[in-house]
Amino acid sequence: MKKFTLIELLVVVAIIGILASLLLPSLGKARAKAKMAVCKSNMRQINTWIFMYSDDHDGYYIDYDWGNQISWDDKLSDYDGRNMSDGRKRNGAVPVWYAYNPVIYACPSDELQRKWGASTAVFTRTYVLSERRINGSGNLLGWAPGISGSGLSQKMTNINSPSNTLIMAEVSHSLNLVGHIGLNTVPPGSYGTYAIPHDGLFGANYLMADGSVKKLTYTATRLQSDGTMPSGISGLGSMWDAGE
Length: 244
Hints:
InterPro entries: N_methyl_site, Pilin-like, Pre_pil_HX9DG_C. The chain has helices at residues 6-56, 72-75, 77-80, 86-89, 188-191, 218-222; strands at 127-130, 132-134, 140-145, 148-149, 152-153, 166-170, 185-186, 204-208, 213-216. By secondary structure, it is an alpha+beta fold. The longest helix has 51 residues, at 6-56.
């Protein structure tokens, strides 16, 4: 029986190493695309629950309750299977022992560690709704013409172009937690620093009002219909504008 020489073994090992180095980048890209696919699927599922909520609330999008510290995702617990009590909804960030793991609220590409005070025993929430604000006279503020605010939200039927109006974005931030009210909505002017850059810097996922999920650059979401950027932090005329 012929034995392999040391040189022959080294050649085989070298060939295996070369093949592995060629395959690893492809595997990494495949893993990233798989994570992004799960992220998009999560957004579509959450949108289904939002539609169910809207159907029970005269066609309005889900809001949040700043006074009672109830976030929009905790309001969705009546639809996502968690069925949290009102007391638990008011607890702030949901600790891991309060509910089953609401993994669907976290994008697999969002690997940033979350904290609530000194505790890391909390759930990651990646997704946030576009922020809606009005002034003391009840007029919509141009820098936050989104769908959800504290005690107020846009009506679904008032959105003129659902396929070009975003309602949900991704935010990677240590305080973006399931049940935490502080970052459960975001205005367009401050969003750029929080976006998750899937596929390098070529775009993040955005849920549109028609239920589709688009991968877009932050700049593309801010463009107005005439191709110009809104002034300052305004979202008027862009994909962040859900209408009056």
